[in-house]
Design brief:
Blueprint lengths: L2 H11 L10 H8 L2 E2 L3 H12 L3 H9 L3 E6 L3 E6 L3 H20 L6 H15 L5 E2 H7 L6 H16 L3 E3 L8 E4 H4 L9 H16 L4 H8 L3 H11 L4 E5 L2 E5 L13 E4 L4 H4 L13 H4 L9 E4 L2 E10 L4 E7 L5 H8 L3 H7 L3 E3 L1
Parallel strand pairs: 12-13
Antiparallel strand pairs: 1-3, 2-3, 4-6, 5-6, 7-8, 9-10, 10-11, 11-12
């Protein structure tokens, strides 16, 4: 297996080679957790894999089929409702250490955070969905740059405790609601070992071929823990060694697609790049600084035949959406016309006219 084949297989395992008939919730469940700090782009990450429109995905989020919360690494993720509790049980405690440490800078220790959670629970009880600003006003936390960091810490702590998650959108504003009012709590819990095994199997089946360090990066667990869990489920996975690295992937049958027209316009922070520690299989080293920065900002990307060839951005106009592209190498207009075909999926998703400039 070559790097090209690894990248092609990842497109397959991430359900990008063909638009899947799956629902938005099924796509999120398949991938385990999808990075979602850029809310608009994160919705397109789902839509690019199943053909659903933005409105349909928004409805799945508003109806709590898909939950947006902090989980795994300390960032926003989309998680399927059926996975939210066991994933929080598994990863919440380790991410919580970071939020508690950060909150101490504002004189909020664990006791004070717990007291604040009690107040938040009372505020949101009865399916009361409030924005963070509304919650902070009720907590008498003034709006300022430093207090905004405190507010983010308070709400992240509440999320990781399993108290709150995203509520229904209030216009264009994101709200919080009580998790147990959105998703019924299961009667049984997984052990930590069971949770780790489930998370690892889900990752390699939906993101493979990937390495131990890729899984460690994505999950937030140490390489030592990840190595132990991979050894525990190794018989349930396939593996291959390339340049002294072992890549693990699922047992699902793979059709070796050789498509001349394999073009994808993918969102910022898409799993196809961000879920791996190193990304050389999908993007040449000399182009990586054009697609993502050292401090973790990822741009929307254009992929052709499983390789990143450029970036794009969109802006909303009165009666259309404008798309601007930037290719890494000089590209002839005839070639661009072929590459521009890939944006039609985004046009269908938005249900809006797209003009490329």
């Amino acid at each position: 297996m070559t790097y090209h084949e690894i990248s092609l297989y990842r497109l397959f395992s991430q359900k990008l080679l063909e638009t899947s008939p799956s629902s938005p919730q099924e796509i999120v469940h398949h991938l385990g957790a999808m990075q979602a700090q850029d809310y608009g782009m994160a919705k397109w990450a789902i839509g690019s894999r199943c053909g659903a429109t933005e409105k349909e995905i928004e409805e799945a989020i508003n109806s709590a089929q898909i939950i947006r919360t902090h989980i795994l690494r300390p960032t926003w993720h989309f998680v399927a409702a059926e996975d939210i509790y066991w994933m929080l049980d598994l990863s919440g405690p380790q991410v919580q250490k970071m939020t508690i440490s950060s909150a101490k800078k504002y004189d909020y220790d664990s006791k004070k955070l717990d007291q604040t959670n009690s107040k938040i629970e009372k505020l949101l009880a009865g399916n009361n969905h409030l924005t963070r600003e509304e919650i902070m006003q009720e907590l008498d936390i003034k709006k300022s740059s430093s207090q905004d960091f405190l507010g983010a810490n308070i709400m992240m702590h509440a999320e990781l405790e399993g108290l709150v998650c995203n509520g229904k959108m209030k216009g264009k504003q994101i709200t919080y609601a009580l998790l147990e009012e959105r998703v019924k709590k299961p009667k049984t819990k997984l052990t930590k070992e069971e949770g780790l095994a489930k998370l690892a199997k889900r990752y390699f089946e939906s993101h493979g071929p990937a390495t131990l360090l890729d899984f460690s990066w994505w999950s937030g667990f140490s390489p030592t823990i990840c190595n132990a869990v991979i050894n525990a489920i190794k018989l349930q996975l396939n593996c291959i060694e390339i340049e002294d690295k072992i890549y693990y992937y699922g047992n699902q049958p793979f059709i070796n697609y050789h498509l001349n027209k394999n073009i994808h316009y993918l969102p910022a922070f898409d799993e196809i790049l961000i879920s791996y520690k190193t990304r050389e299989a999908s993007i040449l080293l000399e182009h990586q600084s054009k697609a993502f920065t050292n401090n973790g900002i990822f741009k929307p990307i254009i992929m052709e035949n499983s390789k990143v060839v450029g970036t794009w951005k969109r802006s909303y106009k009165k009666d259309h959406v404008k798309i601007e592209t930037e290719f890494f190498n000089e590209t002839e207009m005839s070639k661009k016309a072929i590459l521009f075909e890939g944006i039609k999926a985004f046009e269908n998703y938005l249900e809006n006219k797209i003009i490329i400039e």
